[in-house]
Every structure is written in C-alpha cells, then in structure tokens.
C-alpha cells in the first residue's frame, strides 16, 4: 500500500478524506483443522480485525500509482481513514495454519499456509513477539495490532490452484499470478457482513486483478527498457502502464500511468471512448480524452497505437483535446 497519499478514489461513495482476470476457482468450506497439519480446504472463520471497526473494504484491483500502477492482488480493510485518532486494533488469524514468512518493513507482513495450495497474508501489522516463522496458529488467535503507519490492513490470498491470465506471467510475482478472492472463503454470516462493507458498484464485490486480453490494448504494459526480471520489483511502478477499469466503479475505463509519460496517476477515460479490449493493431491511432477524477487533477489526451509486433506506442498530452495532437519524439514504447 502507498502510505503517502489518502485514497481519494472512494469519494464517489461519500467517504471523507481525513488525513487513504480471471474468476478464481471455488473451494469448499470445512471445520477448522488442528494446528500442525494442513487443512483439506480453506475456511476463514474470523475477521482479521473486528468487523465493527472496519470503515470499508476495497476490492481487488485498487489503483494508486506509482506503487500500485497495476491493479492490486490484495484487498484492504480500512480502519483509520475516517478516524485517524482511533486506537490500534487487535489483528487475529482468519484461519489456522503455519507461519511461512514474516517480512519486516517498518511494520510487518505475515504469511500463513493453510492448505497445500492456499496461503494468506496480512500486511501492515505490528506482530506479537510470539509470532515467529514456523509457528502453528489457530483461527481467531491474536497475531498483533494494526499499524499506526497505515490506514488499512492488507489482506491477500495466494492460491496455486488459480492462475490468472497475464500475457507474460514471468513479469509478475507469485502473489499476483496466483491471486485469489479472499472474501468468498469466509463462513457465514461473516461473509455477508464483510461483502456489505465493500466499496464497489454492482453485484461483483470481489474485484479484478488481471485485465490482459491477447491481441488487444487491455491490461498491463511495461516500458520496453524495463528488464523482465525487474518488472515486479519495488520501484518499477513508474515504468508501468495499465488500461483497466475503476475498482470502485467497473463501468469506468481508466488509464493508470506510473510515470515516464507527461501525465501520471489514475486518469478516467471520457464516456464514449473505445474500450481497450476492442483496440487492436487494425484500430490505428486511438485518442483517449482523460481527466483525473479528484483534486482538480490534470486533463488531456493519451494517444496510443498497437503495433504489429506486439508493442504499443503511447504519448500523453496534458491540457490537449482529441483531434489536436499527433505523436512526437516524446512517445514511448511499451511491451507485455
């Protein structure tokens, strides 16, 4: 999560900013398994933080360039955006399992293996000293407290039985390639409660990570100079570009620009523009009128052309209008 900016993309739901591609395979639910053995199926029986203190939940696919230029592979449980002076809250294990890793980065990210194919993780936690790599934990067991450095608790699920349809999976971390939808594994009535907190228009409350469509503009792109091996590394965001949909309003087309181009950030595409999933090399040069949706951000035009070799040529023109610009020497080439 990028902690430097509040998440204004949820203003359309009346939230106050105070100081924030594939459908996964389903799985059965079962009773909790004793620690020391892997469960046969995943079931989340406890909310990682008390559902009563969750302000809202963001679905998969959150956008916040440059750290999250691409749609996120995890969801967020917001607990301090609207109440920044609230106390820290206890973080508990949603399911039992084995702690497989702990990442230290100011606060901590803890990963817990539950089944042979499914591992969940919680990020921006201040872990109790008893939680160590290799520890066996049970559902509902306290892991630590929420971090004062974050507005939200990150919650992700990696399921090796699920493989998203990225065109070049070698450019992505395992967490993204095998990202699953955490909320669907919660037991009732908790599942209904948590889905009711999701800020997303429409019946689908899980969100979407992968928008890649072979032979079209839709999905994720990388600056041609970015090595494959460095594509998922922290700091690569400024060299990433995505043609996707708003996670809160999936009817809204967006262009997420991490950097390099003359316009950056999440830009809403004007109504009536061609869906990137329909743009092919035969489409020629396509002009996207765009505008930043909040804070009086920039408007302009993004020009893009799909090339026959699988690359795209892109250039951004702040303040311009469609029909008034053509490619210049500032155009950049992106690849899958």
Short description:
The chain is 3% helix and 29% strand.
What does this structure look like?
- This protein is mostly beta strands and 336 residues long.
- The protein is 3% helix and 29% strand.
- The radius of gyration is 20 Å and the shape is elongated.
Instruction: Give the termini separation.
Output: 24 Å
Q: How many strand segments? A: 17
Q: Would you state the CATH class of the largest domain?
A: Mainly Beta
Which structural class best describes the helix and strand composition?
Answer: mainly beta
Rough outline: elongated
Q: How helix-rich are the residues, as a percent range?
A: under 10%
Task: Report the radius of gyration as a whole number of Å.
Answer: 20 Å
List keywords for this structure.
336 residues; mainly beta; 2 domains; 9-stranded antiparallel sheet; 8-stranded antiparallel barrel; elongated
Could you give the topology of this structure?
Layout: E1 56-58, E2 75-78, E3 90-92, E4 97-105, E5 107-113, E6 118-127, E7 136-137, E8 142-146, E9 152-159, H1 174-177, H2 190-195, E10 219-223, E11 240-245, E12 253-257, E13 265-269, E14 285-291, E15 299-306, E16 312-318, E17 332-335
Antiparallel strand pairs: 1-2, 2-9, 3-8, 4-5, 4-7, 5-6, 6-8, 6-9, 10-11, 10-17, 11-12, 12-13, 13-14, 14-15, 15-16, 16-17
């Amino acid at each position: 999560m990028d902690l430097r900016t509040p998440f204004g993309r949820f203003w359309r739901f009346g939230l106050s900013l105070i100081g924030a591609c594939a459908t996964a395979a389903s799985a059965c639910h079962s009773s909790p398994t004793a620690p020391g053995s892997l469960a046969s199926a995943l079931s989340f029986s406890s909310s990682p933080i008390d559902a009563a203190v969750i302000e809202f939940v963001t679905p998969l696919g959150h956008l916040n360039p440059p750290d999250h230029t691409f749609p996120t592979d995890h969801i967020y449980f917001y607990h301090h955006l609207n109440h920044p002076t609230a106390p820290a809250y206890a973080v508990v294990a949603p399911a039992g399992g084995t702690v497989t890793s702990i990442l230290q980065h100011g606060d901590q990210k803890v990963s817990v293996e539950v089944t042979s194919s499914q591992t969940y993780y919680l990020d921006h936690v201040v872990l109790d000293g008893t939680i160590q790599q290799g520890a066996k934990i049970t559902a509902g067991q306290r892991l630590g407290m929420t971090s004062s450095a974050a507005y939200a608790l990150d919650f992700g699920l990696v399921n090796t039985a699920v493989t998203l349809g990225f065109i070049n999976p070698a450019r992505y971390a395992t967490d993204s390639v095998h990202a699953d939808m955490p909320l669907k594994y919660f037991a009732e009535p908790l599942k209904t409660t948590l889905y009711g907190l999701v800020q997303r228009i429409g019946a689908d409350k899980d969100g979407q990570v992968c928008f890649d469509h072979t032979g079209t503009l839709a999905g994720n792109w990388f600056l041609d100079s970015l090595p494959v091996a460095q594509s998922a590394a922290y700091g690569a965001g400024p060299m990433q570009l995505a043609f996707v949909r708003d996670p809160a309003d999936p009817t809204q087309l967006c262009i997420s620009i991490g950097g390099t181009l003359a316009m950056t950030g999440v830009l809403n595409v004007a109504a009536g523009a061609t869906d990137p999933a329909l743009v092919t090399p035969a489409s020629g040069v396509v002009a996207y009128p765009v505008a930043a949706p909040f804070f009086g951000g920039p408007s302009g035009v993004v020009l893009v052309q799909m090339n026959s070799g699988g690359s795209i040529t892109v250039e951004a023109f702040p303040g311009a209008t469609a029909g008034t610009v053509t490619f210049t020497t500032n155009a950049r080439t992106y690849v899958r």
